[in-house]
């Protein structure tokens, strides 16, 4: 969750700036039925296939979609999947504990949250410990600031997050089974949690893609995204959060990447391998 300072920067700086800049209506997701958002190809790619550029030429998508070669997940992918799964389970456990005890038995709720089974994976154990300590602080802060707060409002205050929300990307020519994370801070903020990786220029495309899909499905504006970089060093968790204003440029960049990769698959155009390609990708 963002710190109090980051939340203030979001609400008083990033969101107002995004509103001032605005977004061209043709680049809002609800304009999916007309160019440039209208998908010209019947190739429903996953959002990560469009937004990801770890393979610079996109040959990983060509290999999977055209050649039918499915790559084995590497260590980084396995670690990220395991940590995302642990975080989802922990959030459900924490919310269940708060609803079960309510604000009337808040100390019991805190104790229940601490009963989450310790994961075997060291990084997951560190992540759970961090989140558990952090939510206890947020609970006590909220109870002190709002003594008459109700249980549902407390949960929204200390855990304003939805992990793994399912979305139908068909409006934008994408997969019908997309999944994203959301931060609910008065207005929805697309959340992308990246484990054990450095900042990449293409990471904001994921935020833009999910904002477009959310706008297409629910027809409300999504102007801001948040990327959380979580890295583990010497048994410690280091987190860095970066807000992105989802303006015209990054939206158009996502749409161009979608069209380019869909054309590559539809026309079976081999983009060629890139430096550092996996052996399976160069077949």
What would you note in describing this structure?
47% of the residues lie in helices and 15% in strands. With 283 residues, the protein is α+β, with helices and mostly antiparallel strands. It has a five-stranded mixed β-sheet. β2 (178-184) and β3 (188-195) form a beta hairpin. α4 packs antiparallel against α5, α4 packs parallel to α6 and α8 packs across α9 (248-266). The longest helix has 27 residues, at 75-101. It is globular. The mean pLDDT is 93.
A few lines on this structure:
This protein is an alpha+beta fold and 283 residues long. 47% of the residues lie in helices and 15% in strands. The mean pLDDT is 93.
The whole-angstrom Rg is 20 Å
Structural class: alpha+beta
The biggest beta sheet reads:
5 strands, mixed
- The rough form would be described as globular
Distance between the termini: 43 Å
Query: Which ranges are low-confidence, i.e. pLDDT below 50, for 5 or more consecutive residues?
Result: none
- Please tell me the overall pLDDT: 93
- Compressed to H and E, one letter per element, the order equals HHHHHHHEEEHEEH
* Sheet with the most strands: spatial strand order: 1-2-3-4-5
Percentage of residues in helical conformation: 40-55%
Count of helix runs: 9
How many strands in all?
5
Content of β-strand:
5-15%
Secondary structure topology:
Layout: H1 4-21, H2 47-51, H3 59-65, H4 75-101, H5 106-113, H6 122-145, H7 151-158, E1 161-167, E2 178-184, E3 188-195, H8 203-218, E4 224-233, E5 236-245, H9 248-266
Parallel strand pairs: 3-4
Antiparallel strand pairs: 1-2, 2-3, 4-5
């Amino acid at each position: 969750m963002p710190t109090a300072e980051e939340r203030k920067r979001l609400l008083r700086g990033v969101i107002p700036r995004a509103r001032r800049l605005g977004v061209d209506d043709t680049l809002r997701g609800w304009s999916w039925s007309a160019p440039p958002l209208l998908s010209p190809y019947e190739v429903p790619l996953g959002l990560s296939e469009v937004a990801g550029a770890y393979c610079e030429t996109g040959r990983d998508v060509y290999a999977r979609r055209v050649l039918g070669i499915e790559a084995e997940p590497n260590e980084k992918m396995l670690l990220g999947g395991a940590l995302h799964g642990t975080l989802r389970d922990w959030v459900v456990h924490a919310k269940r504990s708060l609803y079960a005890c309510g604000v009337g038995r808040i100390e019991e709720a805190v104790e229940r949250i601490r009963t989450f089974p310790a994961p075997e994976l060291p990084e997951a154990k560190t992540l759970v410990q961090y989140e558990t300590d952090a939510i206890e602080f947020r609970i006590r802060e909220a109870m002190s600031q709002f003594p008459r707060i109700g249980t549902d409002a407390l949960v929204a205050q200390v855990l304003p997050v939805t992990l793994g929300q399912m979305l139908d990307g068909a409006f934008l020519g994408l997969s019908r089974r997309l999944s994203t994370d959301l931060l609910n801070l008065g207005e929805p903020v697309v959340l992308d949690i990246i484990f054990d990786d450095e900042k990449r220029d293409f990471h904001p495309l994921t935020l833009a893609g999910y904002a477009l899909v959310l706008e297409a499905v629910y027809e409300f504006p999504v102007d801001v995204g948040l990327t959380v970089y979580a890295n583990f060093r010497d048994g410690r968790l280091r987190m860095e959060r970066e807000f992105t204003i989802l303006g015209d440029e990054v939206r158009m960049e996502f749409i161009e990447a979608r069209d380019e990769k869909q054309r590559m698959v539809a026309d079976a155009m081999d983009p060629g391998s890139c430096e550092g390609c996996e052996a399976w990708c160069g077949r």
